[in-house]
C-alpha cells in the first residue's frame, strides 16, 4: 500500500542520522515523519507513551524499542522494532493482531555483538583481567602460570544461526575455529541454509557455508556434546528456548569445559544451573551480556561466580546502530510503498 | 649437509610435545637430541648456559630463546630461534659468523599475538574495563555514555607485514576493517607481496592480497596520516625502526586519534612521546605488550598514562607455541638433512 496519509513515529535515544529525514521526505512526500529523541533511562530505554499527545496522535507506523501501550498503537499498521528480539511483544495486542506487520532489527547489531563475543572471550583466554590488576600494581612479571589456549583448531558452537550467529561464524573462521551451527528448524539443503534477513554487505555468512556441521530441533544435547570450546547463544527467547540450557546441558559441556557466551536473552539459560556450573568448574567461564533477571540485582550470586564477565545488556551498542537501523527502516518504507515483501518480517506464531 | 655427528640442544620452559623426540630419532638416527626444560624466570626466560656441562658439550645445533654465551656456541652451525625477533642477537659472535645459519620462529606466534591485538583493542572499544568495575560494584546500569565505535568500515594500518601482521590483516578483514600495509622494502608486484616465511595453514595472508594500499621505506609519515583507526606495530627492531614512532608521528595520528597496538618491540616507539600522546589525547589509547624499558619499572609514567593497557611481553604465550615451534624445527632439520633452503632463514646484514 503506497505511503499516503501515513504518520511515522521514530522514538530513539539518538538523533536521526544526518540527511535521513530529508531523504525520507523527498522520497515519500505523503508521509508525515516524526523522529523523537528521549534520553535512555538507567536500566532500559523509555517507552514512547511518555511523548506528548500531539506526537503520538494518529500514528500508523512506528519504530521503537520498548512496547508502547495498546492504546497508543491502535492505528498502527507497521512496526519496525529497534531490537533483534521480539520477546517483549509476545502478549501485546498489536503483535497478536495479524494485520499489523512487525519487522525486527536483525542484522543491525551483528557487527558489534560479534565483536563483544570475541572481545570478551579473548579477554578471558588471554587473562587480560589479571594483567590489568598487575598494571594497577605496576608489577611487570611474566606469567607462564596463566596458560593461553588460542583459538586455532578449536571449535565454536553457535546456537541460533541468524545475523549475529553468522557474523560470529565469519570471525570464528578467520581465527581458525571450526563452527558447528544449531538452528530451530532443520537446514538440510544449501537453499535452506541461506540467510533471508537484513545483512550488512561484507558481514556474516549469507549462504550458510561456514558451519562444518548443522544440528536442529531436538538435537540440542547432541550439539552440546560436540567438544565445543566456545558456545555462543544467539537464538531468540521463545517458549521452546526458555530454560534450554540447564543442569543437564552444563554436564554435557563439562567434558570440554566449554566457554559460554550469551548474547541472546537471559532466560534461555537456567541461572541457578549456570551459577553452579561456574562454581563447580563444569564450564571454564562465561560472558553474559544478558541475564535473568534484568536488571541483575545487587547480591545476586551470578555477580560473583568465578570466571564470569557480566555487562548490562549493552553489546548492541555502537555509534553505527542508528544509521544501520535508519537504513533498514528506509528500505522497509520503500518495500511498503511498492507493496514488496518486507525485510525481517516476523512470522508471528 | 646430512645430519650425522650432530648434537641438537633444545632449551625450553616447556616439555617436548608428545611423540616429537621419537619422531626425530626415527627420522634422523645419527642426530643426538637433548630437550632440556628449565622453568621460566620472573622477567625473562633463562639462558642455556645454566645447563650442566655434559648437556652443553659439543652442541652443533641449538634451539633457544635468550642468547647463550659465545663460548657455549663455538661448535654450533644452526640456530633455531624460539622468537620471531632476532634483536637480542645482533652483537653476538655466532650471529656475526656467516657460517652459522639462524632461523627465526616467525609464524609460530601469529595466531595468539593477533588474538592479543584484537582482544585488547575490542576490550578498549567495548569498555570492558568499565563494565568489570561495574560488576565488582554489582551495579547493573546501561551506559549509553560509553559510546562504542565498532570496526566495520574502519581502517587498520599494519606496520610490518610478516606472519603476525598478515594474521592481523586476516582478522581485520573478517571484522570489516580496511587494511593498509607498511613494509620495509617496496612491494610493487604481486610476487613481492607473497610471504616467504613459515605460515601455519589457514592463517595469515600468504599471497598479500588483503591490503588496499601498500607503503614502504621512507613513506612512514604518509602511511600514518591515512586516517588510521588502529595502528598495529609488528615490525622487527632494527637500527631503522628504533624510535620510528615519535612525537612527529603521534601528531600525524592525532587527526583520527589512532589506537596504537605494539606487539613488535618497545624501542620502536619513543616512550616519552607515547606518554605525552596518551596524556594529551593525540591518540585515543594504546595496547602495549612490549615496552621500553623491559621490565617496565614501578613508578614509570607509562603504567598510569590514560587509556593504556600494558602486559608483560606475554602475547606470544599459547599452549600451542611449543608444538608449533617443534614442527618448524622438524621441518628445518629435514631441510638441513636434504640440503634444502631453510624456513625463516635470517638474512644477516
Characterise this structure.
2 copies of one chain form a homodimer. Chain A is α/β, with parallel strands linked by helices and 349 residues long. Chain A has 2 domains: 7-106 and 319-338, Rossmann fold, CATH 3.40.50.720; 109-310, NAD(P)-binding Rossmann-like Domain (Rossmann fold, 3-Layer(aba) Sandwich), CATH 3.40.50. The first copy, chain A, has helices at residues 20-27, 53-56, 93-96, 110-125, 128-136, 163-175, 220-224, 247-253, 271-280, 321-338, and strands at residues 7-12, 32-37, 61-64, 78-81, 101-103, 155-159, 178-183, 213-216, 230-233, 259-262, 285-288, 308-310. A 7-stranded parallel beta sheet of chain A has the order 8-7-6-9-10-11-12. In chain A, α6 links the parallel β6 (155-159) and β7. Chain A is globular, with a radius of gyration of 21 Å. In chain A, 49% of the residues are buried. The model of chain A has no long low-confidence stretch (mean pLDDT 95). The interface between A and B is large, with 69 and 69 residues.
